[in-house]
Amino acid sequence: MVESLQMFLFLFKSKYRRKCSWFSPFLCSVLIVLLFCHGVLSKCSEHNCTNGECNNDTCVCFEGWQGPECQFCGGKVNLTTPTGIITDGLGNYSVSTQCTWLLSPPRVGPTPPPIRIRLESFATECGWDHLYVYDGDSVRAEKLLAVFSGVLEKQDSSWTRQVVARSGFALLHFFSDDAYVMEGFNVTYAAYSCPSNDHLTNCSNHGECDDGTCKCEPFWTGIACDQPLCPDECNSALGWGRCKATGCECAPTRAGEDCGRERASAGWRWAWRERGEDVNSVHAPPPASAGHVLLAYGEDLIRVGGETFSQVEFLYRYKVSTGVWQSVPTHGDAPAARSAHSAVLYGHELIVYGGAVASDDPERGGGLAGLEGRAGRLSNEVWRARLDTEPVRWHNATPAACSPHRHAPLAHCGGLHVSGHTAVLVYLGATKKPVMLVFFGHSDIYGYLHIVQEYYIEENVWSAAPTQGWPARAGFGHSAAWDALSRRVYIHGGLVSESEATQAPSAALFEYDVESRVFKPLPSAPTPRYLHSAVFVSPGVMLVFGGNAHNDSAAAAITNPTGARCYSAGALLYDVRCSRWWETRSPAGGARAAGAACALPQHSRPAALLHGGFNGRLRSDALVYEAGERCAAHAHEDACLNSTRRAAVACAWREDLQLCVQLEEIGWKESFDDAVRACAIEPTFDGALCGAAAACGACLAAGCQWCGACHAHRTSCKRYPHQLVQTLDQCTWSDEAAREQCGRHHSCAACHAHKHHKPRAAKTNGTTELPQRACYWDYDAIECKPANTSEDLRAISSAGGAACRAPCSTLQNCANCTAEECIWCASAARCVDKNAYGASFPLGGCRAWATSGGVCAGAGCAAHASCAACRGEPACGWCDDGRGGGRGACVPGGARGPHAPALCSHHRWHFTSCPACQCNGHAVCDARARCVQPCGGRAVGPHCDACAPGHWGNPLNGGLCQPCECNGQAAACAPDSGRCYCSTKGLAGDRCDKCDNTNHYHADLYNKGACYYDLTVDYQFTFNLSKKEDRHLSAINFRNAPVKPDVDADFSIACSAHARMNLTVRSRLDPAERTLFSDVNCTNFKYKFAKSEHSFGIEDNVTLTTFFVYVYDFRPPLWIQISFSQYPKLNLQQFFITFSSCFLLLLLVAAALWKIKQRYDMYRRRQRLFVEMEQMASRPFSQVCVELEKGGGGSGVPAPVALEPCAGGRAAVLSLLVRLPTGGTGRAPPLGGLAVASALVTLGHHPPAHAPHNNKRARPR
C-alpha cells in the first residue's frame, strides 16, 4: 500500500507541479492520513495476535498456528493435556491448509487411556475438505475412526458426533483445498472419558464410564446413554403401547420405536444398531462397510466386498431367521478387496464385476499412504463362485477374447475397467438367455460412461448394448433396480460429468426396456443425489434412500435439510405406474451414503433392508423399511389409490367390482384398461422434454412427434407429413443425433472410442461412404464433436491413439500429472481427472491433493529436506543423524517411531518437534542452541538454511552452495536454479549476457555489455520499477539521437526516490563517449542542448549525435519520467499574421452564410404565397342568398355563410357575414355596415359539441 501511494504522489506532483489549487493540499492530507492509518493497523498487538505474541510489530505464532494474526491452524502439534479443545481458528478456515494434532494424554494406569473425541460444531466443504481421525499415532494407525466432511447438524446422533480412540493416542489431520472455505470446526477431547451428549459429562449422566464404554442405567441406551429405551413412554397415555425392559411393546395396530406409527402405514425400524447402541443386541453386527453389494440368496442375505479401511472377509452371510452374521470361508484364489463394484446371483452362482481394488502397499506415495487411501486401480475382472459348495471356490472368469458375433464395449474384450456402476440380472429373448446388464459407471480411461454393457453368462463374453431412445446419463454412484411388475430397469441419480473439469449429482430417472434396449425419461426426483440406495419394496413401488447430495454450504443444509445434506437420510418413494415421486418419513440418525439395499426375504410384509454405508464413519447397522397393509384392506377408492404414498403398496381400483386389488394381480398392461383405476391422477405428458430432444430416437422415447424436428403435438407435423416418424426403427441418422451422442463424452479417449453404426451406403461418384461415423475431440473448444465427413474419419484413423493425450490415470508422478491439468493425490499416489475427484475418492480417500506442480509433494517423505518441512506432513517424522548439526532424514512414521523397514533410535526420532540444534550440518550449536557463525558450505542465516549472497543451491540438510555466474552484471541469482538476477534493467538471459529486445532494449556497437532503451524524441516516458521482478535492479540505461538539425534539444528527468545519473554524448566524428554530467541527483533535472554546440540530425543514415543517460545507485520501488524534446521557438510576427488571417476568413465565411440564409428564407415565403394563391384559385364559385332577420341579436358561435372546399379536399375557404363597427353613427358605411369575411381553413374532424373552440386553423385573408 505504501509503495502504491508513493507512486501516486510522484505522478501527481510531476503532472501538476505548475498548478496551484485548493485540491492539491487536500489530496496530500488525505494520503498522509491513509499512510498513518496503514502504519497503525499494520502493527500487531496483544489483541490481534490471536494465537501468538507480538514481537517487533510482527505476530510470532504459537506452536500449531499460522497466518498474519496467527488466526489459522497449521503444522503438527502434540497435545499432552488430559482434556482440551481443537479448532481450526477464528472465523472461516483458510484455503490450502494442513493441520495435524497428536493427542497423547498421560497414562494413569497400566492400560492406555481411552480418548473421547467429540465434534461440538462442524462445517466444511462436502467431499473436499476433511478431518481425519486415527486411533493411533500415525496415518497407519490401528484404525481409522472417521473422515468427517460436510455440515454436522444438531440432530445428528451421538454415534456420528463422537469417537473413542483406545490405543492411548489419537491423530487428527485437517486438509482444505484451495477453492472454498466454511466455518470450520470445534472439537473437544478428554482422556479416560466415555461418549456423552455434552463434553462436560460422561454417559450423559445416565450411566457409568468403564474404560471408554458406557454402562447405561435402566431404561437408557445408546453409546452415550442419551436415548430413552421407551421414547415418549411408548405413547402409553394414548393406549398405543407400554414400556418393557426390552423397549416398547406396541398395541396390535401400532408400530415403531415409540408406537407412534400405525401398523397399516409403511415405516422404518432398526434391524440392528451399531455396537453399544442397542441394548437388545445379542449378535454382533458385521464389520462396518461402505460401497458393498447386498443380495438375497434364498432365505439369507449375502454381503459382497466393500470398503472397510481394514482387512476383513470378502463375503458375509446373514441368516434372516436367526439374525446371525457369518463370514463365508473361501478356498484358493479370491478377488482382492474392493468397493464400488457390482454383483448378481445367477442361481447359486455369485458373479462379481469391476470396482476399485483396495491396495495395502504402505509405500504408496513415498510412504504418505494411510488407511484412508486404500482404493486404488479400477478393475475389469469378472469373478464367479458357487455358494452351494463348501468351502466356496472362486475363479477368475474375465473374458480374454472377443465374440465374433457381438461388439465388445469400446473394443475391450474383457469389459471396461469401471467403478460406481450397477448390475442387474435379466433373461433376454425367447430362449431366456441369462445376461448381466451393467449400467454406466466411471472409467479412469474414458471418464463417466454412458453405455450399457451386457455380460452373457453362459457364453462368458461381453457385448455393448445397442441402446436407443433417450440419451440417458447416470455416471458414478447411481442406482438401478429391476421391477418385476413392469419388467423394466429404473436408473436414478448418479454423479455425472458436466464438462471436462466439473461434476455434479443428478436427479434424473430413466426407464430401460431390456428387450428393446430403449431408454425413456421419467420425472426427475425432488433432489439430486449419488451413492444412494434403491430397491423395489413391493412391485411397482421403488424406495430411494440416503446418498450424497453434495451441499457446499451451511445455508444449503438450512434451506433443504433432508435433500441437500452431504450424507442424507432423505427417503423417497416412486410410483412406477403413476410416474410420481412421494416423500416419506426419514429415520432419525440414519443418514448415510454408499450403503446397500435389498428386498428382505421371509418377511410377513414386503420389506427392504438397508445395511452399512458412510456418514463420516463407516456404518455396520441396518434399517428395515416395512410396507403397510395390503390392498384388500381398503374399502374406498381414495384410500386404494393413495396406498402407494401411505403403505408403499401399489393398488388398483376395479370399477366393475368396486374392489381394491394388488396391481401385480391385475398385470402391467391390464392396469391401463378403462375398467381399472390405478392412479388418483394419471401421468401427464411433459411437453418440455420435446424441446430438449435433439434426435429422432430421444424425441419418440419422450412421447413426442418427430418430423425433422421434435414437437409436442402431432398437429405441428401436418406441414411435413413425409418426414413424420412413427417408430424408433424408422429413425435415420441425422446430424442432430451425432452432435447429441458425441456431446455426452467429456474426455478425449471416450470421444474417439465412440462410434455410431449405420448401414453401408452405396457407391457415389466412385467412392464408398464409410460404414460408421465417429466423434473427434476438439482441443480448442474442449468438447467432443461428430466427424461429419469421410475425411474427418480418415484423419482420426491415421492419428490413432496419438490424437489424445495420455489419460490422467496413466501418469505416475506429480509433475507429469499437474502438467496435464489433472489432480495429483500425493497420499494415494494417484492422478485423476479434474471432473473425477468425487468418483475417485468418494469416502475422502485423498488426504492431500494438488493441481499445480509448484505445491506438489509427490516424492513422499524423502522430498522434505528439512525437519520443519517434514514436520508439516502427518505421515512423516524426522530422524536426526545424532551429530548435533541438524542433519537427518524424513521417513514415514508416527509418534512412537518410524515405520518398517526404516530404523531410528528413540532419542533421535522427532515427530511433532525438531532437534534444538538446526544448522543443516553447516555449523554446531552453542549452549543456547544457536548456530555458531559463520556457517560453512557458503551458507548463511540463523539456521544456515540459505545460500550466501552471490551463491545458489540448497544448503538444507548438508546441501552445498555454489557461486553465481553472471558476467559481473548481477549481485545475486535464483537460489534454486542459479538464474541471475540482473542488476541493470534490459539485460536478459540466465547469465545476463543478452539484451531484452522484446521490450526495446538494444545493445550498443561501441559499448559492449550494455543495453539501452531507445527514447523517441518529443515523447515522455514513465518507467515503473516497482514490480516483484524489479527488486534486484540498481541501474537502467537510456539513449536518444535528436533528429531535427535546426532545433535545440530539451532534456528532462524526474526520479521518485534517490538515484544518481551520468549523462554522456557521442558524435559521429568521435565514437568515444564524452561525459557532460556526472553523479547528478536525478530527482528533478533539466537541461537544454543548443544546436550551435551539437550537430543534430541524420546523414547517410547515421545519427550525428547520441546522448546516453545512465541512472544508477537506486533501490526499487522507483518511478522515472524522462524525455528528449525538440520543439521549435514560437515566431510572434508569424503567429499574429496567421491569427488575423484566419479571423478575417472566418468573418467572411459567416457573412456569406448569413446572406445565403436570407435568400433561402425569402424563397420559402414566396413559395408559401404561391401555394395559398393556388388553393384560393382552386375553390368552386357559387351564389349564396342570405336572409337577415330584423332586430336579430343572437349570441353564440356564428354560422358560416359558405364553406368552399379546395381541390384535394384538405382545405376550404370559410366565409362569414360580419358587422362593421359604426363609430358612433347610425350605421357603418357604405352598405348597411355588413361585410363578407373569408379565411383559408383546413378540413378535419369536428370537435365535440361542448368544446369551447373549434378545431379549425384559419389564416385571415
TrEMBL record:
* PROSITE patterns from the UniProt entry: CUB (PS01180)
- Any single biological process term in GO: system development
Its recorded name reads CUB domain-containing protein
| GO CC annotation terms, alphabetical | Golgi apparatus; membrane
Chain segments annotated as transmembrane: 1135-1156
- Where in or outside the cell is it found? Membrane
Q: Which domain of life is it from?
A: Eukaryota
Species in which this protein is naturally found:
Bombyx mori
Q: What is its main location?
A: membrane
